[in-house]
Structures are given as C-alpha cells and as structure tokens.
Design goal:
By secondary structure, the protein is an alpha/beta fold. It is 47% helix and 12% strand. It contains twelve helices and six strands.
C-alpha cells in the first residue's frame, strides 16, 4: 500500500531558503516495485477524477498545475497519464512556446494570465511565466525583444520578477486558485538517452530540434537558474515539487500523489440542495412518473 500523502510531502518545497538542487537525486524512486507504483497511479487517477467532478459541481475553487523542466524530462507524458481520467470539459492544457509579437508587446505575465482556469476547472500550464526567469535569464539577449524601457533592465530584474511572481501567486491563492508547481528533475545523462531514442525512431523526429543539443551545453546555467527560481518562489500557498524524472513511471506517481493530496485539502463536496429546491425535485419526479 503506497502512502500517497507521505509520497506527496517527500518532494514538496514550501520554503526555498537554503534549497540546493544537487541535494535532489533525479534517479530517486522511493519505491522499488514498478507494478505497485502503477497500481497506485491508477488509484490516484480514479481519485482525481472523482475530486474533479466535485470541483466542477461546487464551483468555488480552481486548480492551476504548472510544469517546468528541461527538454525530454517527460512533461507531456506525465500530463497525459496523470490526467487520463479527467473529464475534458473540466480541464484545459496550455503550452507556452516562443512568444508571439503580440505577447512581446505586453508585460511578461500577460500571455499566461489569459489562460488561467475559471472556478470549477483544472488548468495545466506546460511551461509558464517561469520561462521569464529561466530561458530568458540564460539567454539575456531575449530581453531586448521585450521592448522594456532600458532603465528598467537592471541587475535587479530577476529579483524583481521573483517578487512579482510571488505576489501574483499569492493573489491567485487568495482568490480561490490552488497553485501547484512541478519541476521534473531529469539528469543530463537521461536527457541524452531520450534524445538518442528520439533520433532512433522516425515517428519521434518531430520532437527533436537541433537547438536541443546546443541548449545542453548550457546545462550548468539552467541548473543555476532553476535552483534560484525554486529558492525564491517556493511558498506554502504555491509550493514547488522537485520530482525525480529519470524514471517516468515514478514521476507520474509522484505528481499524481501531490495533486491528490493537495486537492483533498480543499474539502470538496457536492452542493447541498436547499429544502425548497428539494421540493421542486420531488415535484419533477412525480411529473415524470405520471407521464
């Protein structure tokens, strides 16, 4: 029996003070039995489907799931498997790639804010506004395309963006959005293995870009950016989950456990029918039965 609550807490970070990425093993699985993990994942998927139905019916909370990772860490497959039992009408997935001209003419959070989930729904961001303190930080020349006034582009810009993100996520939490953030922590060695697998399989060539190899050369810069991002933005109301990603079967279970554990804390329930409404329902039943 897998203790989902214990598993969820194992990788959750609510206070980034002193966080060091090197202390988190991408190959950790916690469980040795893959079959047990797959059974626990199936149970988690079923539980999540049940809770999503209540989330939609109650129409009080919304859930925002943010996934960040290096290429080939398994974001797409994790979302696919963990959310496989969800009613598509109650869930929306948005992938954020290279910004458009329109998006560059707005503040850095504009394009993601437009896709926030409404009450009763689950929103999934495949990459997010965190790209602005990751890829933009590793490639600072990108800032030039954002048309910011030169005097605002200072050495403090990353610290300021962290402050803005924290304030934004606090605002979401205060307005009924459960924010859960996942960094799929894949090793450089495992990424290389997955890239080669993509090159070996013609049907996966579309997923590989030559630039992926060039980005690997910046691995240390990305790891530093991820570490500082988590250290600066892990909070109780918007925690990070540093999930080992070298074994996809375990990654999926760890993510599912974290979502189930957090959503259970919302106390979801189907709306209670008021006495007056109950009388109307009984009248409707009587009318149908007497047809």
């Amino acid at each position: 029996m897998v203790e989902l609550g214990k598993l969820a807490k194992r990788y959750r970070i609510e206070d980034g003070d002193g966080f060091r990425l090197k202390d988190w093993d991408p190959a950790d699985t916690w469980l040795d039995d893959k079959a047990v993990a797959q059974e626990a994942l199936a149970q988690s998927v079923a539980k999540l489907a049940e809770m999503q139905d209540k989330l939609y019916a109650q129409d009080r909370w919304s859930v925002l799931l943010i996934f960040q990772a290096m290429d080939a860490a398994g974001k797409d497959s994790t979302i696919k498997h963990v959310m496989s039992g969800i009613n598509p009408q109650g869930c929306q997935v948005t992938s954020f790639k290279q910004p458009s001209t329109e998006e560059l003419d707005h503040d850095f959070m504009w394009r993601t804010t437009r896709h926030l989930p409404e009450r009763g729904r689950i929103g999934i961001f495949n990459r997010s506004y965190y790209e602005e303190v990751l890829v933009v930080r590793v490639h600072p020349a990108i800032l030039g395309a954002q048309h910011l006034p030169p005097k605002l582009v200072t050495k403090k810009i990353w610290k300021e963006r962290f402050e803005d993100i924290n304030a934004f996520e606090r605002y979401l939490a205060r307005n009924g959005t459960l924010v859960l953030k996942f960094f799929l922590n894949v090793s450089k060695e495992e990424q290389k293995k997955r890239f080669l697998e993509r090159l070996d399989e013609p049907e996966k060539h579309w997923k590989f870009q030559p630039s992926d190899v060039a980005e690997r050369q910046l691995w240390p810069d990305y790891m530093k950016a991820y570490e500082e991002m988590i250290r600066a933005t892990a909070t109780p109301h918007a925690p990070w989950h540093v999930v080992p990603a070298d074994s996809k079967w375990f990654t999926r279970l760890a993510v599912a456990a974290a979502i189930v554990d957090a959503v259970e804390g919302l106390g979801l329930a189907y709306p209670k029918v008021e006495p007056e409404q109950a009388d109307k329902l009984q009248a409707a039943r009587a009318a149908l039965e007497n047809e």
